Every structure is written in structure tokens, then in C-alpha cells.
Amino acid sequence: MNKVISLRIALRTLLGAVHSRVFYEIAPEDAEYPLGSFLLSNSYDDGTMENFVLEVDGWDSPEDGDTTALETLMDAFDKAIHKQVIRTNGMAFIIYRENRLPLDDPDKRLRGRRIIYQVRTFGGG
């Protein structure tokens, strides 16, 4: 199995254990809030290992504008994957948080947060 597929499966399992509504790349239009999504937005090979950029997003539509549930969800996602070592199919992945960002949406009722990680890979094809 290739690195991207192995990593996607592992991330889906880890993030899915935190919250039932976690999607790869794009959430369905009819998905209920709050929800999470993740994307492997980039990768580069430095000659010794391939590194992936992982973006984990959280979205909520709080009626009163309170982002407490969203911040709590993002904290739970972060605790589930930051500094995590994943071993699967002859490969290992180590995940490190890089930064946190607010997300804007044209729909001002939505609130979004993003945490960006570096995923270092070892082994595999």
C-alpha cells in the first residue's frame, strides 16, 4: 500500500475516534456541524524521507457565535495526533504540529479553525 493511502487510513482512524463527522478533503454539503476534515496538501522529499503537510480543519455553526465547542474539538484532534507515531505496512509516520490558524468563510455564520502539521515518513514505497 502506498504512503498516502496508509496515512489517510491511519488519520481517519485517529481523528474518527475523536469525532464521528471527519472527512477527507471535503465534507458533504448536508453534513451536520460541528465537523472536521483533513487534507494532505503537499509533500516533499528531502532525500532521506518524504514529508507531508497535513491540514486539519474544524467547522461549526454556533447560533450564538460561541466557538467553545469548536475550540474543544480542535484541541481533541490535536491531542489525538500531535507527536503521534504511526507504524503500518512497513512504514512509520511521525506527526508534529506546526501552527494554528482561524479560517474565514463567506458564510459568516460559520466558524473555522485549522491546525497544520508536518508528517515525517520513514520506509515504504
Explain what you see:
With 125 residues, this protein is of the alpha+beta class. It has helices at residues 3-16, 68-81; strands spanning 22-24, 35-45, 50-60, 85-88, 91-103, 111-123. A six-stranded mixed sheet has the order 1-2-3-6-5-4. The chain is elongated and about 50 Å long. The termini are close together. The relative contact order is 0.22. The mean pLDDT is 93.
Task: Spell out the key features of this protein.
2 helices; six-stranded mixed β-sheet; 125 residues; 6 strands; single chain; alpha+beta
Q: Which SSEs are present, and which pair or pack?
A:
Elements: H1 3-16, E1 22-24, E2 35-45, E3 50-60, H2 68-81, E4 85-88, E5 91-103, E6 111-123
Parallel strand pairs: 1-2
Antiparallel strand pairs: 2-3, 3-6, 4-5, 5-6
Brief characterization of the structure:
The chain is built from 2 helices and 6 strands.
